[in-house]
């Protein structure tokens, strides 16, 4: 795996905003230190009752300017930092969701783990930017600037302050990096497991966790947090000790210069307060190792998710998908574990033909559809597009050239428009509304929220939205798995008319238990009862359902249409 590959891809082109925010943060920190130093000098000089007010006026003006400047710099720094963060957050989420779309069917029942990666891990990258990268860069810039400023008073003092600042803000957190990273990984694993358990339980997964599992995970998190707090207390002690040492060193060095008459007395308060204030900037750095460890683990999981194979592994030198391809299944055999799902099945579908796959549940019809889009490879035999083995084709192009409507096609929690445009981002609203009208969904608002998994829609409405999305995708091959299973007869008739119109020029494969869709096809193939090597008969389009179609019985629709 490329180290921090996902993070680098997301940050590419945004480095300038990050550096600008860090520079403004350093200026804000420097303004705070200078404000404290100037205030100390003002109080000390006023206590001396100078003969002229010019010196006090200059210091008073400096305090006002630095106070306003610190607030303005901090505001602009936060503005730039959050602009940078939200830009990268949007790019990260878009990258994750774009990767999930073609890989969704391979994720199986890992809903909780995927949810954690898509949300919590992306948030971990955002937190690493705000709580680690920006504070660390700003602190290093402040340290360099303060060392140069103090060097005008005393080079040995500047070197001592520089060393103590690096000890408090860099070396001490670096020493705690390994144990904090271990705790971060332990906490991340426990949180991921807890999220997965909660999500899978809410989805009624077969792998539902028990109350004892939840209690154990919560105890693991509590122990990790306790050890984390103990390490942070050690880092706080180290920072305060370094600040005390820097204060003592400053008092001795500058105090000696004041006593010798080399510096005015007000410089002692200014130098001491300015140096001590600079150490306050090291306080947020105690969380840097943990944030970086969280981000490193999150990056690894996100990189693995977004670079996982689409269906199966891509060939080293992929071949372009032929134009207007015929589809061939040549003696394919597929096993799921020890169960033989498809045995020696062959099929030839010329481009533009329509075929229905029928048969009992579990006969392997959906498996054949997954073979055609190369969501899986056969254990034996071959799948060919235009005479080219699918294992030699570019999987991204293959996915783009096929539109697959699954029986329970997922809808994302978003607007209806966003769900439909997963088929093609460039689709105009007019095209979306026209197709929805034809499917009997004219009352739907494109800006309407469909809910998680389409929860705000009925079963029939979800099926028609999924059908519309498949039909809208520009493709050579259209595969529909039970497209009318949830529809009543009037809604089914509308859907079939739309399918007939939209499939023109495309190869159509329908998986169905119902007789209605069979009127659209040229051939009907019973799956699970063909002899080994059986093929699609090259008969012309029938004018009436075949005997296989007549043997089918309609199912009752599920939910309202």
Outline the structure in words:
- Its EC number is 3.6.3.44.
- GO terms for molecular function: ABC-type transporter activity; ATP binding; ATP hydrolysis activity; ATPase-coupled lipid transmembrane transporter activity.
- InterPro entries: AAA+_ATPase, ABC1_TM_dom, ABC1_TM_sf, ABC_CydC/D, ABC_transporter-like_ATP-bd, ABC_transporter-like_CS, P-loop_NTPase, Type_1_exporter.
- This protein starts with a helix and ends in an 11-residue tail after the last helix.
- The protein is 58% helix and 9% strand.
- By secondary structure, it is an alpha/beta fold.
- The C terminus is likely disordered.
- The chain has 2 domains: 302 residues, ABC transporter transmembrane region fold; 224 residues, P-loop containing nucleotide triphosphate hydrolases (Rossmann fold, 3-Layer(aba) Sandwich).
- Helix 6 packs across helix 9 and helix 7 packs antiparallel against helix 8.
- It has a 5-stranded parallel beta sheet, sandwiched between helices. A 4-stranded antiparallel beta sheet has the order 2-1-4-5.
- Helix 15 links the parallel strand 7 and strand 8.
- The radius of gyration is 33 Å and the shape is elongated.
- The protein is built from 16 helices and 9 strands.
């Amino acid at each position: 795996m490329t180290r921090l590959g996902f993070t680098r891809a997301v940050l590419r082109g945004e480095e300038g905003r990050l550096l600008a925010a860090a520079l403004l943060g350093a200026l804000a920190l420097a303004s705070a230190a200078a404000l404290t130093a100037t205030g100390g000098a003002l109080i000390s000089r006023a206590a001396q009752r100078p003969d002229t007010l010019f010196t006090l006026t200059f210091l008073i003006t400096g305090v006002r300017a630095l106070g306003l400047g610190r607030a303005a710099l901090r505001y602009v720094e936060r503005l730039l930092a959050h602009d940078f963060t939200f830009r990268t957050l949007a790019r990260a989420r878009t990258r994750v969701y774009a990767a999930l779309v073609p890989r969704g069917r391979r994720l199986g029942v890992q809903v909780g783990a995927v949810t954690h990666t898509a949300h919590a891990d992306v948030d971990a990258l955002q937190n690493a930017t705000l709580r680690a990268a920006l504070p660390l860069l700003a602190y290093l810039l402040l340290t360099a600037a303060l060392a140069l400023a103090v060097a005008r008073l005393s080079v040995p003092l500047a070197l001592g302050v520089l060393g103590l600042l690096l000890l408090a803000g860099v070396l001490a957190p670096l020493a705690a990096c390994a144990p904090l990273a271990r705790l971060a990984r332990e906490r991340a694993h426990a949180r991921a497991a807890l999220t997965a358990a909660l999500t899978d339980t809410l989805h009624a997964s077969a792998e539902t966790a028990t109350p004892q599992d939840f209690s154990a995970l919560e105890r693991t998190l509590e122990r990790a947090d306790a050890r984390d707090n103990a390490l942070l207390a050690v880092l706080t002690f180290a920072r305060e000790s370094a600040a005390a040492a820097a204060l003592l060193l400053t008092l001795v060095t500058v105090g000696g210069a004041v006593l010798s008459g080399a510096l005015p007395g007000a410089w002692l308060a200014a130098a001491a307060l300015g140096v001590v204030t600079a150490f306050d900037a090291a306080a947020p750095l105690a969380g840097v190792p943990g944030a970086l460890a969280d981000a490193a683990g999150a990056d690894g999981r996100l990189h693995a998710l977004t670079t996982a194979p689409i269906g199966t592994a891509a060939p080293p030198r992929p071949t372009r998908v032929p134009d207007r391809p015929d589809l061939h299944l040549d003696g394919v055999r597929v096993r799921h574990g020890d169960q033989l799902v498809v045995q020696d099945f062959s099929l030839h579908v010329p481009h533009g033909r329509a075929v229905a796959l029928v048969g009992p549940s579990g006969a392997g019809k959906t498996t054949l559809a997954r073979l055609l889009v190369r969501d899986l490879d056969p254990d034996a035999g071959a799948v060919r597009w235009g005479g080219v083995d699918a294992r030699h084709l570019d999987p991204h192009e293959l996915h783009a050239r096929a539109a697959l409507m699954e029986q329970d096609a997922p809808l994302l929690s978003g607007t209806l428009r966003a769900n439909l445009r997963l088929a093609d981002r460039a689709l105009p609203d007019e095209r979306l509304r026209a197709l929805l009208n034809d499917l009997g969904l004219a009352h739907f608002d494109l800006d309407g929220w469909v809910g998680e998994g389409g929860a705000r829609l009925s079963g029939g409405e979800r099926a028609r939205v999924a059908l519309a999305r498949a039909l809208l995708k520009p493709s050579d091959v259209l595969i529909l798995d039970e497209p009318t299973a949830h529809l009543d007869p009037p809604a089914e008739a509308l859907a079939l008319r739309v399918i007939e119109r939209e499939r023109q020029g495309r190869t159509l494969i329908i998986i169905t238990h119902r007789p209605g869709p069979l009127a659209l096809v040229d051939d009907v193939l019973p799956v699970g009862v063909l002899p080994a090597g059986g093929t699609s008969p090259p008969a012309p389009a029938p004018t009436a359902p075949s005997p296989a179609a007549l043997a089918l019985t309609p199912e009752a629709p599920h939910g309202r249409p």
